[in-house]
Specification:
Helices cover 29% and strands 33% of the residues. By secondary structure, it is of the alpha+beta class.
């Protein structure tokens, strides 16, 4: 069956979707990225994701050539054409400045914009039931407040992550944690939910978890977290649009608490599933 994507105003066969080798996204890595999920044809928190795309684009002075309403219609058309309306699907957006001018410039009025959908490939159910592993890496992401297409470091260390049998890579810099390569991180200590607030991308799943926690009257802190606090935590979990809420029971060679998924993490997973 042919698969389709949206490229520069048209829905086209993926096999025919082409971007110039002179696109500034390819030549200079100048662009932004966004991603969300659809559950049985229902797009999850599109307004939040579209607003973050807008914020990222404005930060880099990029032009978004579609409205949120147009984007919603395009996504639903893609889900229909790609036969994904009865399953979970990943939705991805790529926006660049378009064709380069004199190598380092671009025309604001002619961006490259793509939306595509993919079948969702979940993590093993065993990880959600028994917890996964993080490995730490000394790194501080450039422009962490926006979702750029610069994933050079994350891509470069994926083989190492797999060798370590880890779910994600946790970035650490000057003794503090920030975020994972494609996820946010939370710890639980003495019933309190704690997550970094500086030098991180404000994930939409992170936002939903904070909303759930508030509705359950959980105590929440958004603040810097020293690396040692992760190792001393009662519970650890990560959040992302494609992984949802993932319990973590190992960081490097350390076991978190008793090595089992904690009650607060279980409750948050239960409440999150009600929304999807």
């Amino acid at each position: 069956m042919p698969e389709y994507c949206f490229l520069n105003g048209e829905i086209v066969n993926k096999a025919e979707a082409k971007v110039s080798v002179f696109d500034i996204g390819l030549l200079r890595g100048f662009g932004v990225y966004e991603a969300t999920s659809a559950f049985s044809g229902q797009i999850f928190r599109l307004t939040d994701h579209f607003q973050r795309l807008v914020d990222s684009a404005h930060f880099l002075n990029l032009n978004i050539p579609v409205t949120e309403e147009r984007t919603e219609k395009v996504i639903k058309d893609l889900l229909e054409k790609n036969e994904q309306t009865k399953k979970r699907a990943n939705i991805k957006f790529i926006l660049t400045g378009g064709m380069t001018i004199s190598s380092l410039e671009y025309d604001f009025n002619t961006p490259t914009f793509c939306i595509f959908t993919e079948d969702h490939e979940p993590l093993s159910q065993d990880i959600y039931e028994n917890g996964g592993k993080l490995v730490t890496y000394n790194y501080k992401r450039d422009l962490p407040q926006i979702k750029t297409i610069n994933y050079a470091t994350a891509v470069n260390i994926q083989n190492w992550r797999k060798e370590e049998e880890a779910v994600e890579i946790l970035y650490v810099h000057e003794g503090e944690i920030s975020e994972c390569s494609t996820s946010n991180i939370f710890i639980v200590k003495e019933g309190k939910l704690i997550t970094p607030t500086e030098g991180v991308l404000y994930g939409i799943t992170r936002k939903v978890v904070l909303e759930i926690a508030k509705s359950l009257d959980m105590s929440v802190e958004e603040r810097p977290i020293p690396e040692r606090e992760v190792l001393e935590a009662d519970e650890v979990f990560i959040t992302s649009s494609f992984k949802d809420i993932v319990p973590i029971t190992n960081v490097d060679d350390a076991i978190i608490s008793n090595g089992q998924v904690g009650p607060i993490t279980k409750k948050l997973i239960e409440e999150f599933l009600k929304l999807t």
